[in-house]
Amino acid sequence: MKILKKSVCLLLALLMLSVALLSCKDGNKDTETDSQTEEVTEIETTKWGDVAINNEIPEDLDYGGKTVNILVRSGEQYRREWFTEKPTNSLQQEIYYRNVEVEDELGVKLNFIVQAEGKECADINNTILTTAQSGLGGIDIVNNYCRYAGTTTLLPYYANLRGGEFTYLKLDQGYWSEEFNEVANNFGTQIFAVGYSNLSFYDRALVLYFNKAKVEEYKIGEEYLYDTALSGKWTYDVFYKLVKDVWVDDGDAVKDADDFVGLAGIRGSEAHSGLFYSFGCNVTEKDESGYHRVVTDTAKVHAEEAFQKMCDLWYSTGAYMIGLSYDNYVHFTTGHSLFNLDIIYHYESGNLMMRDMDDGYGLIPCPKYDENQEKYLSGAQDAFNSMSVLEHSQSDFEMISAVLELMASKGYEQIRPYYFERIVKGQQLDSKSGQCFDLVMAGVTLDFAEVYGASIGRVRDAIWGTPFLKYEEGGTFTNAYAENVDSLNRQLSDMDEWLKKLG
Questions:
Q1: I want to staple 385 with a disulfide (CB 3.0 to 4.6 A). Which of 143, 204, 227, 342 is the partner?
Q2: In the beta sheet, which residues pair with residue 2?
Q3: CATH 3.40.800.20, applies to 206-379+432-502
Q4: pTM for this predicted structure
Q5: Plot region of 27 (φ>0 → left; ψ -120 to 50 → alpha; else → beta)
Q6: Using CA of residue 116, residue 117, residue 119, residue 123, what is the dihedral sign?
Q7: What are the extents of the domains in the chain?
Q8: Residue 30 — pLDDT band, cuts 50, 70, 90?
């Protein structure tokens, strides 16, 4: 499809011609007119209307049927972006045919190795380590749980994706995540990457769902929520007033899952991660030399103030935190809260529970900190797949780079827009929720500490998540910061030094 932009004024041209003819008829002097040329600008787009991006992979590339081994996590929500044994829905079919095209265009065979994670990814990490230490190959591309992927044990076995041997890997192309690159690339070294082949990165975006029937019952109205969000006026203060006092006890005088509340969410991460990002907070920053440190000055003050607002909300009368994602789905879909803070997609059964709920649901962004905040922001909860490449004696980095690049390119051209437009916005959301979904996707962000967190002391947990969960016992951002800042800065510096040596 091509969009043609023509700077032509047909009416003006006809008018000038008429004046010239009349002048000749009346015996006036011939009038010279400057000839006008058409300027045509052509913008090539994909079938979904996105600007087309040339992946620069030669059409005659052929690796003669060589195998590329790709390690994937066994969970359906993480495996599905790469492959399925038997496609049973339209998204799986799109991914299946993408893989066939990649194999045909590059002359490769994609071999997917499915691995269960184990507790805190102990099993999958052990598989990666054992394979790497053997030096015999068997795994080329690694997909792992971002939170646990960058351990100090595994990092030395991963290749620098910015290295020249990755011939066809162009991480600054538009089908790779600019947001992820910004924090993962330092001193010319990037160990992990996320592209449009990674649906899980966008699935883990944090959003607010609301119960359509209940917001009408409480005289809020879904149109008010949509209009406030779409006009950019959906802020903490607005949200807090709506939910802080909403609690209907079931009769036992104890707040629990049988009660009705203004806001619910998963205690373990989603509750505090959602507002950490939506309030525009960071836990790390770069100094003038490119080294990371825990936030200072204005950023630190903002985080302190945002932390208190978050606690005021979640520990108010109207909020309730739940332990597990399944229980959270049950709580919301059976009508126990006005709002629920969660991610786009946990797994298929939860998604079906949402679609089948009697009251119906809508989606809006998590609130801004205040009206001075330029746009809505949403963190990618850190269970998404990040990709890396094992370095061993059998590595063919040129071939691997071509596979990664083509996967991301085709993800941009077809998989991501198909998923967003046909599945999420077409089947799961109403039109205004779809518009809000676009706002969320435009604001997905993350911190350097999320990418290398397994090696640098869990910065966000240490100074934000842990004191939040211990707030009722006296946990504060200020005290947690003071207790951890020195050790965290040492670990951040060590990580940057390591990255710098590789770059």
A1: 143
A2: 44
A3: no
A4: 0.89
A5: left
A6: positive
A7: 2-44, 66-202+384-426, 206-379+432-502
A8: very low
